Amino acid sequence: MEAVIAVIALLFVLLTVLGVYATVKAVGAAKRGVDRTIDQARRTVEDHTLRAKSFAQLGPVGEIAQLRLKLRTSMRATQDALRAGVAEDESLRESLGLFQRLSAHGHELDGELKRLESEPDRARLAERLPQLRERTERVIGSADSLRWAARDRAGRFADDDLDHLSAQIDVETGALRHWTTDDTSQTPQTPQTPQTPQTPRTSRPQTGPRTEGAPAAQEPARPAIDPTAPRPTYPWQKKPRPETSGM
């Protein structure tokens, strides 16, 4: 009896621990989902604010807002492309590592540009603007190079796979239409002989039966017994007396 109670208590403890673990995981996943939603909403609001500043404000402040917007757009697009591509192509993991290093420079540059937006000294800001513009273009150029290289690689793999698939489909369609090749192979190929001009032949009347193997044109058949030629008459011979029916 004590063993049964111990087993039941152990099962209860295990179920309680599993329930607590599942609750913690669910709460963590919900918290991460909420954090992602908040971060995405904050980025969207900040992007719209920068876009409005780039159009509304003139001078160094408007150009800084434009640089920040271009930097953030390029870095976000490259990050999404590499993370989506590394799931299918493991060779992009090294590119993703390089982008993470580049992303550190991008965050640092974005923070510096954000601080300079509230700089009251416009003259000092205008002096530093060419250097900031050059750094931003370098970071954007590197991010764009990684993104387009990953896309070109994915496109190349897609083209190769499509070529291989097209070749297999051609072989399969040829096998499905096997009767066309069979008919072509079974058709006798008769050589064409040049036709010689035929000379006109004079038709002769044919009398009598035509034996098998005899030529088409044949001499007319002669009677079996030749008719007797008339006998010559002499003066000393008597005239023949006609025969009568009476004796």
How would you summarize this macromolecular structure in one to three sentences?
This protein is an all-alpha fold and 247 residues long. It is built from five helices and no strands.
Q: Strands, helices and their partners?
A:
Layout: H1 2-56, H2 60-86, H3 92-116, H4 122-176, H5 178-186
Helix pairs in contact: 1-2, 2-3, 2-4, 3-4
Structural notes for this entry:
The structure is a single chain. The chain has 247 residues and is mostly helical. 69% of the residues lie in helices and 0% in strands. It is built from 5 helices and no strands. It has helices at 2-56, 60-86, 92-116, 122-176, 178-186. α2 runs parallel beside α4 and α3 (92-116) runs antiparallel to α4 (122-176). The relative contact order is 0.06. Residues 211-217 have low confidence and may be disordered.
